[in-house]
Specification:
With about 250 residues, the chain is α/β, with parallel strands linked by helices. The chain is built from eight helices and seven strands. The chain has one domain: Rossmann fold (3-Layer(aba) Sandwich), CATH 3.40.50.720. It is globular, with a radius of gyration of 17 Å.
């Protein structure tokens, strides 16, 4: 195992985009703390892949929509960091955890809205806030948004607008944390073929073809199109990038 590796915390790192981010970070020599919501087995499989690459991995359960659980979560994170490195600090926070919400504006319920808001905006806001004492000066924050904050597809009014809020928040983080040398950026994937939202983009042939037809590079995205960009933003080469929205969509809806 490596010593003195930098350390990233990836929420929702057990599958889909988060899994690919975690693996790409490990390939760059970064240790990974990854969270899962319900599937411990999948998270452990990702941890094993990270360890096979020679990096450390630590798996923790997290409900990213439950702000009241964050203090206890960071107590566990700090204890592991202290044990591994002698200091309760880490370098990179990647706010990736998310759930899908597909509902026409007119039919979106308050319950659906609140549930999505807790995960996609309130959770990101307060998880980042509570991470600040542990996040090293010169560190990075990467928030995951969506192409749906730029272009509108019917059925994503709540989700898309919450991602828009995260994009504005990221600029504020870049501004307010700049004095600590912390860079904050957004990565906004386009439509990706994963199990997200019940695998809609991956499994619905008609939707898949529709997305491909409005994408400059002519296909839907894959998880492995995204993770490397997130990992790049954690490298020394990306040190001068902050407050930016980087869309990784193959040129969708240009």
């Amino acid at each position: 195992m490596t010593t003195n590796s930098k350390i990233a915390l990836v929420t929702g790192g057990s599958r889909g985009l988060g899994r690919d981010m975690a693996i790409n970070l490990a390939q760059k020599g970064i240790d990974v703390i990854l969270t899962y919501h319900s599937n411990r087995q999948k998270a452990d499989e990702v941890a094993a892949e990270i360890q096979a690459l020679g990096q450390k991995a630590f798996v923790l359960e997290l409900d990213s929509g439950n702000v009241k659980s964050f203090d206890a979560f960071f107590t566990q994170v700090a204890a592991w960091l202290e044990e591994q490195t002698g200091a309760p600090t880490f370098d990179f926070l990647i706010n990736n955890a998310g759930t899908a919400l597909y509902a026409p504006f007119a039919q979106t319920t308050e319950e659906q809205f609140d549930q999505a808001l807790n995960v996609h905006y309130k959770g990101v806001f307060f998880l980042t806030q509570k991470a600040l004492p542990l996040l090293k000066d010169g560190g990075r924050i990467i928030n995951i948004s969506s192409g749906l904050a730029r272009f509108a597809f019917p059925g994503s009014a709540a989700y898309g607008s919450m991602k828009g809020a995260v994009e504005v928040l990221t600029r504020y983080l870049a501004k307010e944390l700049g004095p600590r040398g912390i860079a904050a950026n957004v990565v906004a994937p386009g439509a990706i073929a994963t199990d997200f939202g019940g695998g809609r983009v991956r499994d619905n042939k008609e939707l898949n073809q529709q997305v491909a037809s409005v994408t400059a590079l002519g296909r839907v995205g894959l998880p492995e199109d995204i993770g490397g960009v997130v990992a790049f933003l954690c490298t020394e080469e990306a040190r001068w990038i902050t407050g930016q929205r980087i869309e990784v969509s193959g040129g969708m809806m240009l």
